[in-house]
Every structure is written in C-alpha cells, then in structure tokens.
Design brief:
Length: 219
C-alpha cells in the first residue's frame, strides 16, 4: 500500500491529488507543522531530510515531490497523465516537472522567509532589515517573479494546460507554485493563471484530495 506522509498546508497536497486522479488506493499519515512552521521531528524517522511529502511503499521510501510523482506514474500509472514519449509535449512535461521545485519555488520561498525577518527581529534591527528586504525584493526577487509569472501565463495560453492539449502530471506539479503566488501576491493582468487554478480546483479528484489531506490554505 502506498503511504503518503503528509504535512498540513503543504506542497504534499499535490501527491494526494495525483493519486486521486489515478484512482489509486493510498493511506495518508498526517503530520502537523510546529509553531515555527517546520515539520515535526517524527518525519525525520521516516526520511533523514524530515520534509514532506514522503512516500513509502513496502520497503521503499522516497522523498522529493518530483521523484514521488515519477515513481507513482512509472510504477502504477500505466502511461496515464504523461504525454507520449519524445514528443514536444513530453519535453514540456519534463521541463515543468523539474522546473516547479527546481526554479519556481526557490524565489517564492526566499521571499516568504525574508518577509518574516523584520517582524521577528529585535526592534532596533527592524528598520535596517526592512530596508534590506525591500532592496532584495526590488532588485532581485520582484523582477525574477515577474519573469516566472510571464512564463506560466504564456505556457498556458494555447491549451490551458502546461504540457500539450491534455491535463498531465506537469499540471499537478505546477499547481503549488501557482497557488502559493495566488494566495500571497496575485497575478496582475495574467488571466491564464487564475483560469488554470479555477479549472483544477473544480476537478472532483482535487476536491477529494482536499478532504483526505485536511486543512490547505492555498485552494
Ligand atoms: N523540494 C521538496 C521540498 C520539501 C519541503 O520543503 N516541504 C515542506 C512542506 S511545504 C516542509 O516539509 N517544510 C517543513 C520543514 O522544512 O521543516 C519537495 O518538493 O518535496
């Protein structure tokens, strides 16, 4: 049996959604974030990195969402939710499968961490930190995020999906960065992104995954 070690309000929600889309049986083992937002230490007993998601099945333990998604598709997917190998859609699929965590999430995570720093600093350091965070946002993260958002919007323009004419696991992987931006920052005038989110949030498998995963602030 596939077991997903799932942290509340986290990117792990995507894995539950993928399993629902494929109609596969699975168990969810839920973990609650600490006040610091970190994962509880019990997750380190499952995998040394102690982050969610983690998949276990029999003797196998896999961490890292992209690897988990690939494992599920290759061992239980029977070719579903992956474009035909070698086609342009397949390479778009590969791009988004890796890009979601490799390139889209790091600036979002950095922005979140930096936004918290002034609040948590002693009062005398707050003004300096605020100015430093503002400068990093204006010079580095802001322009980078604009480039990412344009890439998402343009990629969705033709079909409404990230890899070809059909819904695929690339859409599942990309859901979290889009939801994270949607919940904190917004998309400006880029209409293809909110349309994509509305479409995935209406899918029965997405709704079912929410009921299995518990609280999720991004949907
Ligand atoms: N790139 C990794 C990121 C894993 C990750 O950072 N997961 C977060 C959940 S959103 C987590 O466990 N955070 C708690 C912590 O870092 O202690 C993946 O996609 O699996």
């Amino acid at each position: 049996m596939i077991v997903i070690h799932h942290l509340n309000n986290s990117r792990s929600q995507r894995v539950l959604w993928l399993l629902e889309e494929l109609g596969l049986p699975y168990e969810v083992k839920r973990y609650e974030r600490l006040k610091t937002m970190q994962a509880p230490p019990e997750l380190k007993a499952v995998h040394p990195l102690g982050k969610s998601p983690i998949l276990t099945e029999g003797e196998r333990t896999i961490a890292e969402t992209g690897a988990i998604v690939t494992y599920i598709l290759e061992t239980h997917g029977a070719g579903r939710l992956v474009p035909e190998r070698g086609t342009p859609d397949y390479w778009d699929y590969q791009h988004f499968l890796h890009y979601a965590e490799g390139s889209a999430m790091p600036p979002l995570f950095l922005k979140l961490i930096l936004s918290r720093m002034p609040q948590e600093a002693p009062f005398f350091a707050k003004p300096i930190l605020k100015a430093a965070v503002k400068a990093v946002n204006e010079r580095l993260l802001g322009p980078q995020l604009e480039t990412h958002l344009d890439h998402w919007d343009r990629s969705l323009a033709a079909t409404g999906w990230f890899a070809g004419a059909d819904f695929s696991a690339a859409d599942v992987m990309m859901s979290f960065p889009l939801e994270a931006v949607g919940s904190r920052l917004g998309f400006g005038l880029r209409s293809n992104i909110p349309a994509f989110l509305a479409r995935i949030h209406a899918r029965p498998a997405y709704r079912e995954a929410l009921s299995r995963g518990g609280p999720y602030a991004y949907a």
